[in-house]
């Protein structure tokens, strides 16, 4: 079995605060080195991995495959070989997207001052992951609240391919390599590239209109979306606006029709079929 199918399959968040692994995620659970249990950057990084595995179609499928690979006693050998091959392919097709999302969100969930310190301590590969998102998002969305709402939704969209629906329809198929549209690495890179090519202005306008409608409907006094203190002054309203903005980002991405995405009833049906397959 390949090394990344053991503990710490997803590249661990290493060398953020010291030249050793600070935290890791194995597709089923996160773990943090005891010396880093109070590190917000490490916690939020691993939390981002966890959320992808729990709440996105591609993340859920890979997590299920990992559970079978870890099962004791082991399932039938031919079945395990199919599962392992598919898990390998999914890992290779999603590792970069996982780390881009987790590194960016891990820092943006901190205060701006703390994030600035953490960014300077990132090792080169993780700095590249972080900048690939920050260079596109940050110039147009000034507060960490906006940045998290936008990038987390984009990342979840990238992990929302139609692979799960195809997989359950074929009853435990073997995938040695995924089609491009099923690869979260390609999907996230393509989404960020589309935004960088000029669509980010359109997305920002969409979110401004969404915020205007929110303030009009709720009667809350409008605050500066690009300022941190506007959000922290009204945490409940800020949470509600955050949900509205995330929904607006998802709707906007879907409307662009850049790539297939598994949503709504087809997603529910695929998850139900996956549950039935795992129980059989």
From TrEMBL:
Name this polypeptide is given: Uncharacterized protein
Naturally occurring in which organism (per UniProt): Thauera phenolivorans
């Amino acid at each position: 079995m390949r090394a990344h199918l053991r503990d710490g399959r997803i590249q661990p968040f290493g060398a953020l605060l010291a030249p050793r692994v600070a935290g890791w995620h194995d597709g089923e659970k996160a773990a943090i080195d005891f010396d880093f249990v109070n590190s917000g950057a490490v916690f939020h990084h691993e939390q981002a991995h966890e959320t992808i595995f729990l709440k996105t179609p591609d993340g859920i499928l890979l997590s299920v495959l990992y559970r079978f690979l870890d099962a004791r006693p082991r399932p039938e050998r031919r079945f395990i070989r199919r599962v392992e091959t598919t898990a390998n392919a999914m890992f290779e097709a999603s590792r970069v997207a996982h780390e881009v999302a987790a590194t960016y969100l891990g820092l943006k969930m901190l205060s701006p001052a703390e994030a600035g310190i953490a960014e300077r301590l990132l090792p080169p590969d993780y700095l590249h992951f972080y900048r690939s998102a920050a260079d596109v998002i940050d110039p147009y969305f000034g507060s960490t609240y906006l940045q998290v709402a936008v990038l987390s939704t984009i990342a979840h969209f990238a992990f929302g391919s139609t692979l799960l629906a195809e997989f359950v329809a074929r009853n435990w198929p073997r995938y040695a390599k995924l089609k491009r549209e099923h690869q979260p690495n390609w999907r996230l890179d393509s989404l960020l590239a589309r935004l960088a090519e000029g669509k980010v202005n359109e997305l920002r306008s969409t979110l401004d209109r969404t915020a205007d409608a929110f303030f009009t409907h709720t009667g809350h006094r409008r605050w500066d979306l690009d300022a941190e203190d506007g959000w922290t002054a009204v945490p409940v309203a800020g949470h509600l606006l955050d949900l509205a903005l995330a929904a607006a980002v998802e709707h906007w991405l879907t409307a662009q029709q850049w790539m297939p995405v598994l949503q709504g009833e087809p997603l529910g049906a695929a998850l139900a079929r996956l549950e039935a397959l795992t129980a059989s």
